[in-house]
Amino acid sequence: MEKTWNNKAWFMVIPVLLLVAFSAVIPLMTVVNYSVQDTFGNNQFFWAGTDWFADILSSDRFWDALFRNLAFSMIILAIEIPLGIFIALNMPKKGLGVPVCLILMALPLLIPWNVVGTIWQVFGRVDIGLLGYTLNGMGIDYNYTRDPIDAWATVIVMDVWHWTSLVVLLCYAGLVSIPDAYYQAAKIDGASRWSVFRFIQLPKMKRVLLIAVLLRFMDSFMIYTEPFVVTGGGPGNSTTFLSIDLVKMAVGQFDLGPAAAMSIIYFLIILLMSWVFYTVMTVSDAKSQ
């Protein structure tokens, strides 16, 4: 029997494709256009070719910011993924505690990024902030506006507080989807808590963990608002990530050509790293099945 195709669904998809083209593809083409040209204002452009890309890739400023971004993302993943799994494993699976815990986990995710930055900016101040005032009262010389280590610690703790809930909710969704028959079989076999986690819970969470790792990597690698509000990229350039440096170059210095080239390189790095994460984890998941 010849298979018939129903193309009516395309009428629902075409508006979405047009919207994506208008909101994503056209701005991207504009950035590409700026990246190969130079301008001195008055809407006058001069062909520059790949000069801006060569300048960015040979700049210590770019590589320093990239290293800070990679270090921050790796630290965030190393903290939030295990912490999220641990919290999800200890959340109740039945009863009144379930909605209470889910609401508490969702609360940090509902706070806008600029508000999160403002909260931690005030929270960490040594004169009026609860965290800064308490630490200095305990004899700890803490000042995120002066010490790079304190600035890094503040930004990391802020991100952990804000985004670990996302990992928790994803892991919890994976845990509650595991049938009780697996746990009953493990109980009959006398499996330990570690064995249950290693051979039942962790394999069943692999897909949601893949999503969690990809989302947290992309978000942490593109972080801008929170550290900009808290530290402004300082002290010095210690918390100047690629996103902050890009905004400084485009808005502060109005170097549109280099900023456009840097944004394209930034986008390609994120795309490449996400593809590597996805490939490695999906291959590992396929081997374990």
TrEMBL record:
<protein>
    <submittedName>
        <fullName>Sugar ABC transporter permease</fullName>
    </submittedName>
</protein>
<feature type="transmembrane region" description="Helical">
    <location>
        <begin position="208"/>
        <end position="225"/>
    </location>
</feature>
<feature type="transmembrane region" description="Helical">
    <location>
        <begin position="259"/>
        <end position="280"/>
    </location>
</feature>
<comment type="similarity">
    <text>Belongs to the binding-protein-dependent transport system permease family.</text>
</comment>
<feature type="transmembrane region" description="Helical">
    <location>
        <begin position="12"/>
        <end position="36"/>
    </location>
</feature>
<dbReference type="InterPro" id="IPR035906">
    <property type="entry name" value="MetI-like_sf"/>
</dbReference>
<dbReference type="GO" id="GO:0005886">
    <property type="term" value="C:plasma membrane"/>
</dbReference>
<feature type="domain" description="ABC transmembrane type-1">
    <location>
        <begin position="66"/>
        <end position="277"/>
    </location>
</feature>
<dbReference type="InterPro" id="IPR000515">
    <property type="entry name" value="MetI-like"/>
</dbReference>
<keyword id="KW-0813">Transport</keyword>
<keyword id="KW-0812">Transmembrane</keyword>
<keyword id="KW-0472">Membrane</keyword>
<dbReference type="GO" id="GO:0055085">
    <property type="term" value="P:transmembrane transport"/>
</dbReference>
<keyword id="KW-1133">Transmembrane helix</keyword>
<dbReference type="Pfam" id="PF00528">
    <property type="entry name" value="BPD_transp_1"/>
</dbReference>
<dbReference type="InterPro" id="IPR052730">
    <property type="entry name" value="Sugar_ABC_transporter"/>
</dbReference>
<feature type="transmembrane region" description="Helical">
    <location>
        <begin position="70"/>
        <end position="89"/>
    </location>
</feature>
<feature type="transmembrane region" description="Helical">
    <location>
        <begin position="96"/>
        <end position="115"/>
    </location>
</feature>
<feature type="transmembrane region" description="Helical">
    <location>
        <begin position="160"/>
        <end position="183"/>
    </location>
</feature>
